[in-house]
């Protein structure tokens, strides 16, 4: 681990100032500390924001949900309003990591976590995300767990977060505070596809701090849920996953919100699937036909071609689970 300095801040003004001067924010530290220990990351200054007042979960005036950036994954998962309004969020969190990590890790940190690509974490391997211009070892290497959607010639790494898939499906917004004040970024625009700059992963400006994630007030009644397919039952990242929320009224699907994980360089919203569902009556045939659109534009690699069919099957299964639930 490289030498670094450490400072703890007591308010958001101090945090923004420290961040503007090059400090890296840390709260739970469940990702950043690991990367520092592996010498993948070597920040000069850590800014501890764990004392900031960003730990509230509340229903907004319009009936959405605002989750403070420093609320832990565990606290969010069991919160009564989260479970009642958006069970897909609770389920995604409970299928993430271990109980110990969920107790430490924060919502803001979770969506900021970096890829679990083994080549990114192996400092002897070529990785454009870690060292721009060095190449991407995964392209010709072992790429079974890598992305098939949103990839580029410079990077094929997946985003590892489960709850980010739920946030993408629910069309959340990320609240930011920085030197220029507050701003809100749609979740779809917050996490960036690699393109030719895979080292830039979020739409953050220098010194900006995540303060909250807000889910809008979606039509009710709303049924939702999360499915994660992985090599083993626990403590494993997704091969594929699906976050689904459906608003059904009068026996017809009025609104559909669907996203996939484990297959994209970012949590992958599935508008073609959503469009196939809206205005239709739930049926096994509908679930299969809509899910058949899930892998549109996929670019599978040598070892992950199976993900095309697995993604379609995962989406179909979760559409049926949510759509047929009472």
TrEMBL record:
SUPFAM superfamilies: CO dehydrogenase flavoprotein C-terminal domain-like (SSF55447), FAD-binding/transporter-associated domain-like (SSF56176)
Chain ranges of the FAD-binding PCMH-type domain: 1-220
Protein name, as recorded: Carbon-monoxide dehydrogenase medium subunit
InterPro entries: CO_DH_flav_C, CO_DH_flav_C_dom_sf, Diverse_Substr_Oxidored, FAD-bd_PCMH, FAD-bd_PCMH-like_sf, FAD-bd_PCMH_sub1, FAD-bd_PCMH_sub2, Mopterin_DH_FAD-bd
Protein species of origin: Streptomyces flaveus
GO molecular function, one term: FAD binding
Pfam assignment, any one: CO_deh_flav_C
Superkingdom of the source species: Bacteria
Keywords annotated in UniProt: Oxidoreductase
Keyword match rRNA-binding: no
Chain ranges passing through the membrane: none
């Amino acid at each position: 681990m490289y030498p670094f300095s450490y400072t703890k801040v007591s308010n958001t003004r101090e945090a923004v100032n420290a961040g503007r001067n090059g400090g890296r924010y840390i709260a739970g530290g469940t990702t950043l500390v690991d990367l520092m220990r592996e010498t993948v990351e070597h920040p000069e200054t850590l800014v501890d924001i764990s004392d900031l007042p960003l730990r509230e979960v509340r229903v907004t005036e319009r009936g959405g949900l605002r989750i403070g950036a420093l609320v832990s994954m565990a606290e969010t998962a069991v919160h009564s309003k989260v479970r009642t309004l958006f069970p897909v969020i609770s389920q995604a969190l409970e299928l993430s990591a271990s109980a110990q990590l969920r107790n430490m890790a924060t919502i803001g940190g979770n969506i900021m976590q970096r890829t679990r690509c083994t080549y990114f974490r192996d400092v002897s391997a070529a990785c454009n995300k870690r060292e721009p211009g060095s190449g991407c070892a995964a392209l010709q290497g072992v790429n079974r767990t890598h992305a098939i959607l949103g990839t580029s010639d410079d990077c094929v790494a997946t985003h590892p977060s489960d709850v980010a898939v739920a946030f993408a499906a629910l069309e959340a917004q990320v609240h930011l505070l920085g030197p220029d004040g507050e701003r809100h970024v749609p979740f779809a625009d917050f996490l960036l596809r690699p393109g030719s700059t895979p080292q830039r992963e979020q739409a953050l400006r220098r010194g900006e701090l995540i303060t909250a994630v807000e889910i809008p007030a979606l039509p009710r009644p709303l049924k939702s849920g999360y499915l994660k397919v992985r090599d083993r039952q626990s403590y494993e990242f997704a091969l594929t996953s699906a976050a689904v929320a459906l608003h059904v009224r009068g026996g017809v699907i009025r609104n559909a919100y669907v996203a996939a994980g484990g297959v994209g360089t970012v949590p992958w919203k599935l508008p073609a699937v959503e469009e196939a569902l809206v205005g239709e009556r739930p049926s096994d045939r509908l679930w299969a036909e809509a899910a058949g659109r899930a892998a549109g534009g996929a670019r599978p690699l040598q070892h992950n071609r199976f993900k095309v069919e697995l993604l379609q099957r995962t989406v179909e299964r979760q559409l049926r689970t949510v759509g047929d639930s009472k």
